[in-house]
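Revision sheet: structure tokens.
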Amino acid sequence: MLKQRVITAIVLIAVTSAVTVLLPPFWFALAVSAVSLSAGWEWSRLTGLNTVPARLGYVLLLLLAGGALFAMLGIAPEAPTPERGSAALVLGAGLLFWLAIIFILRGYPDNRDRWNSGICVGAMGLFALLPSLVGVVYLKYALTAGYLVLALVLLVAAVDIAAFFVGTSFGRRRLASALSPKKSWEGVWGGLAICLAVAAAMAWAMHQWLRPLRVSDMLLIAGLALVTTALCVIGDLFESMLKRNRDSKDSGSLLPGHGGLLDRVDGLLAATPAFVLGMMVLLEGNLNS
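Predicted:
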């Protein structure tokens, strides 16, 4: 299983890097939208929808909502960076959603009756998927080379990989037994340590090739690493809760050795809004101008 996971991860890294770096912003936006729709297909099963027409209906709703957001942000083939204020509004709503999820996680399973309906879980899917879509697309438009997108993916992957190996090797204190019995606090601290190391490398690269960073900028990047780690954990636990709620081990079977697409992007969904808002503050607009 570990060998299969590694092979799949290598393929994912290669494809993600190529798509991020090589595609123009608008076509990148379409590619990421396709990934979001695939994740929406998996999410539809977590809502309790079991028939193909019903699940396609949820994906269509996601498509229409995403299209409306693209129109609001002015995302088009020849358009410049998406409208900053509107993007910040969507990202802020996404961040508030993930902060609210903390209270749901803390109350599980006693609070199931308050949110355990298809409509509620379906709405959660929109708030989880759409702000992350907007955030990733905004990063690509802000720096068309795609390095900001790769930095976000690398930070999230660092948390995920380090948490897995540190937790497997040294995990003793359970993080949230009711949600995911295998996750440990040792895994969280390991993920945080590696995330901070990656963030330090990112800060050095930004200082060398984007613009000189002040001490306050470096502190902001360190803060983003802390927040990214916390939100990755929240996103992971939230998806674990939804899968447990449906008595399902994986969200799907798209990725050999990893399960479904949601099983790989749950942390990315949660971390994106805060990371992109932080980049907006740090870099003050369009880096290509």
